[in-house]
């Protein structure tokens, strides 16, 4: 079964996003680009909300969001009850976001990390399993119901 990945961001993350789509598809992932589709100034919530809704409704397994700092997309994504977005800038954070938090969206700060690191963090995020156990109890308490 091909893993389906949603990707989006804003104008500051556009170049990384465009390259990341190519890399993911080359690795066998099915990718949907939620935009933006140019590097013209863009409002990230216009792309983040539809991406998160698609993950929540089961259309995609995980998502990747890329903006300048990673903060705007992560804050917006985390407004959704079914989303656990993690802002990552190093390998250990990317692994722990999956192992301990069962994060389903990776937020990357394009202005603060080189593309090769963004690619490495994405690979770690997409291939690291949630450990469950005591972490599942904690994750179960995150959403406001």
From TrEMBL:
Keywords: Isomerase. The active site is at residues 67, 100. NCBIfam families: PRK05571.1, rpiB, rpiB_lacA_lacB. This is Ribose 5-phosphate isomerase B. GO terms for biological process: D-allose catabolic process; pentose-phosphate shunt, non-oxidative branch. Belongs to the LacAB/RpiB family. One of its GO terms (molecular function) is ribose-5-phosphate isomerase activity. InterPro entries: RpiB (IPR004785), RpiB_LacA_LacB (IPR003500), RpiB_LacA_LacB_sf (IPR036569). It comes from the Bacteria. Pfam families: LacAB_rpiB. D-ribulose 5-phosphate binds at residues 10-11, 68-72, 101, 111, 134, 138.
């Amino acid at each position: 079964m091909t893993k389906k990945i949603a990707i989006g961001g804003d104008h500051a993350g556009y170049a990384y996003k465009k390259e990341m789509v190519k890399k993911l598809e080359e690795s066998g992932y099915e990718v949907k680009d939620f935009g933006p589709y140019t590097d013209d100034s863009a409002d990230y919530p216009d792309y983040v909300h539809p991406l998160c809704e698609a993950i929540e409704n089961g259309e995609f397994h995980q998502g990747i969001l890329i903006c300048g700092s990673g903060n705007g997309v992560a804050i917006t994504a985390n407004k959704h009850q079914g989303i656990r977005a993690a802002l990552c800038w190093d390998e250990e954070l990317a692994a722990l976001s999956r192992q301990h938090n069962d994060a389903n969206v990776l937020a990357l700060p394009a202005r603060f990390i080189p593309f090769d690191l963004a690619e490495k963090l994405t690979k770690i995020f997409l291939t690291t399993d949630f450990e469950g156990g005591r972490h599942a109890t904690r994750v179960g308490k995150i959403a406001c119901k």
